[in-house]
Structure formats: C-alpha cells, structure tokens
Amino acid sequence: MQIKKLLEKMDYKLLAGSLDTEITSLVYDSRKIKPGAVFVCIAGTVRDGHDFIPEMMGKGAVAFVVERDDIELVEGFTYILVENTRIALAELAAAYFDYPAEKLKTIGITGTKGKTTTTYLVKSILESAGIKTGLIGTIESIIGEKHIPSVNTTPESYIVQETFRKMVDAGLEAVVMEVSSQALMMHRVAGFTFDIGVFTNLEPDHIGGNEHKDFDDYMHCKSLLFQNCKLGIFNGDSEHLEGIMKGHTCEVETFGYGEQNDIRATNVELLKEHGALGVKYHVNGLVDFDVEVNVPGSFSVYNSLTAIAICNHFGVDETNIKSALKNVSVKGRIEIVPVTKSYTLMIDYAHNAMALESLLTTIKAYNPSRLVCLFGCGGNRAKSRRYEMGEVSSRLADLTVITSDNPRDEEPMDIINDIIVGVEKADGAYVTVPDRKEAIKYCMENAQDGDIIVLAGKGHEDYQEIKGIKQPMDERELIADIIKENPNIKL
C-alpha cells in the first residue's frame, strides 16, 4: 500500500519524500526491519529509534515516522513528522490492519487487582451465550482455539491491532482485554475507542523505577481509559473513584456493595464444602437474581459483579450468567486443585506482600483448621519484597513453608534466608524446604483435615527460572507426580 493510506486519519507533516511511497510493512523494532518498510522511530528509556535511521536505510526501509525535526533528511526517503510516535504507531497500526476494532465489541479492564480473573469471567459468560470472544491479558491471548503466551499484560499497539485483525478473520465478535497503567501511559491502546472500559480497584503498585513516579501518576494513567471509551463501568465503592473518573468522557455505570451503585451485591455468604471454597449473593439494581461463584472472597464478588455489569450490555440472559459464574476457573488465580475432600489445595499468583495479604485474609474468613502458606521470592528483585512477604505470611498463616520461586541468578538459600528475616518479625511457625516439589510434598504429607494450603507466587507460570534458563515446572504437574510417586500420601 501507499504510505498515505496509513496516514488518512492522522495529523502529520511531510518533511521530505512522497506520500505515494509504496511500503511493504510497518515496523517499530529495528531487529525486524524488512525491505520496503516504514520505520516508526520510538524514543525508549534505553534507546532512541531515531538513532537507527541510517542503519534502517541500509536494510531497506523507505520511509520514517519521526517526532524530532532535527534529523538529517536524505534524498530518496520519505519522512513523516508527528507529535508523538507512540500514538502514531497505534494509529498507523490500526490503519495497516484496516481498523479491526471497528468490527469487534471491545472491552478494556483496568485496575490494580482483578483484571485477569474478570477477563476470563467475561469471556466465559459471553461464549456461553454464543458470542465468540477473544482475550488479551497477563497469561495469554486467546483467538478461538489458539492460545498465545503473553510477554506483557497489554502488548505493544501494533500487536494489539494485529491480534484484533486475527480475531476478526477468525469470526470473533468481541474481545475482552486487560489494560495496564503502563499500556495507557505508553499509548498501547490508542488508535481506537473501547466500547466498554472497566475500573476494578486501585492500590499502590507499580510505583518507582521505570514505572510510575508516584501514586497520583499511577491513578492518572488508569483514568486515561475513561477518556477513550464509550461506556465506563466503575467500582462505585472505591475510595479512588473520583480520581479515576477525573476528566472522563464516557457514560457512567457503577457496581459494588453500596446502595448508590447501579448493580449491587446483597446477602453475601461464604461457601465451604468438600474442599471447595466459594461465595454466593443476590445481585439487584439493573439486574435481579441469585449468584454463586466457585472462587472465594469479597474480591470474587467484585469480579463477578464486574462481569455481570459488562455482559448485561450484551443482552446475556440470567441463566447463562449464573451457569458461567458457577463453573469458571482461572489458571493460577485462587485455582483449587481437586485432590481430596479432607483439605483444600490451591494455587495463586500472589507474589508481593499486598497480594499475599489480600489472599490470606480472604482465606482466613473461611475458618480453616490451619492455613498453610507455601511461597518463595524471585531472585534479582527488591529484597524488601522478601521481608514483607515473610512477615505477612508469618502473621496470617498458621504455618509458612519457605521454598524456592524463580531464583534467577541468586542462590535459593540466600533468598530463603532473607524471607526468614521477615518471617521472624511475626510469630508464625515456619519450615524451610528449598526444593519446591519437596515443599509441596511436605504440605500434602502433613496436611490435617480442614486445612487450606496455599501455593503462592507461581500461579499460571509453568517454569522455574534458574541462572537465565526457564526450566519446565508446573505446580499442577508436580502435585500429580507427588500423588503418583507416593501412593500412601494423605488424600
């Protein structure tokens, strides 16, 4: 196509060359340049794409999209000046893939917690109603039967648009995706308008380093979604609701426990039977029926309310919603592994103190005989996380089993010793079992009737990273192997 086709909805200035320039591909990664490409010069935190222009010329690029007007213009090449090349990449990608978002119902979910679970809930409900739905998130992207492991919670804008295109080509009608604060800050979801934007909750996270300078910046970036959607669905109970809604341009709908919300949960009860945990409640307001969810805790109520609010706008009937919520399971998010009725064994991704405290507090409300928490911490990461997680587990769990997570370039015992420093700040009992499989085996061998055993930190991950190598390790497979290798183990 000619480059002017990509620019038809954009503001730009032609610095040199011709808009009739024929291009073969749209590229933003210098390692993926091809002859005939238009190269979008992204100024990153480490490298500036503008510095690669001479090299890209030598590899066949014919046009450049830039945000600097001080670059050297070489005859025979086309240069397009824009205000922001990240926004331009999103807009160019939308045009390059022929505006696929216009052919999908797009749902974007932002918030500190609950994004992953809610996307799966929504996908499950919509598909149960016959609405073919794709998913983009932390764990994977799903296009029909195809599952693609994720690198980022929200991929680069080019990948977003490419994925949308594949979804349209596969006959999908809707897409639900996680939208991180980083994605909003870096314009990865520019170039189209969401049909529905969703806010789950907000807590201090992703602050410092190359992320957000402070909480206000974090909240501001989250709020940008609601300047880029038609309908905003908000957690009306959040203390940060006003900050998230600041500058919004969308219609507003709310959910939560409070009477002021459009969709409300009442008569909430915790469910615990035969090793399974869940919650049931009545939802009223814009809808009116009883709900049962096989995932425990108050945040499960919020996640399911979010899904109900979204799916209500698709006209999904009560039966489909209730059935999907009762049967949904999300890999690595309070995922109960059914091994026995005498105790509960679950896997969760909680890998920082805030998430672990939320998880353990939720589980304690079910009054287990004992709450056992197994976890480790990642190597080459802040030591403070180790102290904080250790203290949280020691304070809330009856027994902490300290083991290895992703040690990366560190020695596992060095990490474990740091965790012990935190554990000993509280008064909980603890043991150390460095090998993760042996640690899980220890928990199962020593389980007591009515225990809830939480395997925290790995969640959906199916590997363990040691010395730069990701070695296969899936906790579900470890559990199955332990049972197979130890026929007399307590079940």
What does this protein structure show overall?
The mean pLDDT is 94. The strands form 4 sheets. An 11-stranded mixed sheet has the order 9-8-7-10-6-11-12-13-14-15-16, sandwiched between helices. A 6-stranded mixed sheet has the order 17-18-22-19-20-21, with helices on both faces. Strands 1-5-4-3-2 form a 5-stranded mixed sheet, with helices on one face. The chain contains 15 helices and 24 strands. The chain folds into 3 domains: 3-96, Udp-n-acetylmuramoylalanyl-d-glutamate--2,6- Diaminopimelate Ligase, Chain: A, domain 1 (3-Layer(aba) Sandwich); 100-327, UDP-N-acetylmuramoyl-L-alanine:D-glutamate ligase, CATH 3.40.1190.10; 335-485, Protein-Tyrosine Phosphatase, Chain A (Alpha-Beta Complex). The protein is globular and about 75 Å long. Helix 4 (115-128) packs across helix 9, helix 4 (115-128) packs across helix 10 (318-327) and helix 11 packs parallel to helix 12 (383-396). The longest helix is centred in the middle third of the chain and has 15 residues, at 298-312. The chain is α/β, with parallel strands linked by helices.
